[in-house]
Design goal:
The complex is a heterodimer of chains A (171) and B (202). Chain A contains 6 helices and 7 strands. With 171 residues, chain A is of the alpha/beta class. The radius of gyration of chain A is 23 Å and the shape is globular. With 202 residues, chain B is of the alpha+beta class. Chain B has one domain: 3-Layer(aba) Sandwich (Glutaredoxin), CATH 3.40.30.10. In chain B, the strands form 2 sheets. A 7-stranded mixed sheet of chain B has the order 2-1-5-4-3-7-8, covered by helices on one side. Chain B has a two-stranded antiparallel sheet with strand order 6-9. About 8% of the residues of chain B have low confidence. Classes of the chains: A alpha/beta (171), B alpha+beta (202). At the A-B interface, helix 5 and strand 5 of A face strand 9 of B. Strand 5 of chain A pairs parallel with strand 9 of chain B.
Chain lengths: 171, 202
Amino acid sequence: MAFCILFEKKVIMKSKKVLYTIMLLFFFSALNAQHITTTTIDQLYKRTTKSDTTFIINFWATWCAPCVEELPGFEKLSEAYKTDRIKVLLVSLDYTSQIEKALKPFIKKQNFQNEVLLLREDDQQAFIDKVDSSWSGALPATIFIRQDKKAFFEKTFTYVELVNTYKNFKQ
Amino acid sequence: MKQLFFALIAFVAAGTVSAQITTITPGASAPTFALKNIDNKTVSFTDYPSAKGYIVVFTCNTCPVAKAYEDRIITLHTKYAPLGFPVIAINSNDPSLSTGDTFEQMQQRAKEKNFSFAYLYDEGQNTTNAYGARNTPHIFLVRHSSETNTIVYTGAIDNDPENNKSDKENFLEKAISAVMQDKTPEPAVTKAIGCSIKRKGS
């Protein structure tokens, strides 16, 4: 009997230790885990309605060299015009298998000030046309949206081009 | 002054050309070409006397999406060339803007991957622009009958760049089967995410 009680106590102590370890691990992993919000094209468009903010939505991927090159320009633009009603959304089209391997380390390294989202669309045909019917699917691509006004660009922007396009669009 | 005027015209024209690349649509006749292959021989449609059609692939050495499709392009040629549909791959990037796409790098890539199909160098990007290829890889399926070459399908090989979907749709293979049965491919145009073509003046 005494042995049994002793044994139970030991088990309880042991399970408590396991519990604490799990809690501690969970705490640290929560600190470490990077969360990337996913979005659909419809959800993106929904954010732009009922707002007089100019949304600049850039579609990019870590595997796309010209995209990676132009990304700092978008960071610079939102910083330079931060007193305007401007919102830059950097929407990644990275493949699911690349999220942990490529996308998360890249985001961590770049420390983007603009919001980074991950596109979650299964049907390439449908979402490409939904963004713009003139889009071939080539990356990078960018849309400027303010309420009903929309401009689509299948191109790589230099910073100067980006500023000029924004100024023209804003008018 | 006159010179300046012409320079200005040329500048404006160059800008317009790069901005207005339109992709040729199914039903149109396929632009002819005679381009240098990796073995230094010139290749055109007429070099395939028994062809019923051609799988024209605008691709490159450097785009990760194009690279992900290389093995599938090799398989397509192995499977469909004996049936009369050879692959003709064309590197569509300007090598001065994309240094991994020089003629020498093309030769090297073809050797590494053991390409059994033609891999052509499009000097000046005239053929890429004539087809209006927009991203890599961009497919143009051509039907050949007597003297005519007609575009019957443009777009993607399939809807699965990572090659791991259980419900993959092989758009191109479906289009080839349709052509073999004298039918019109459906869909005749598809779109896929790919790399922009590195064009001079864009």
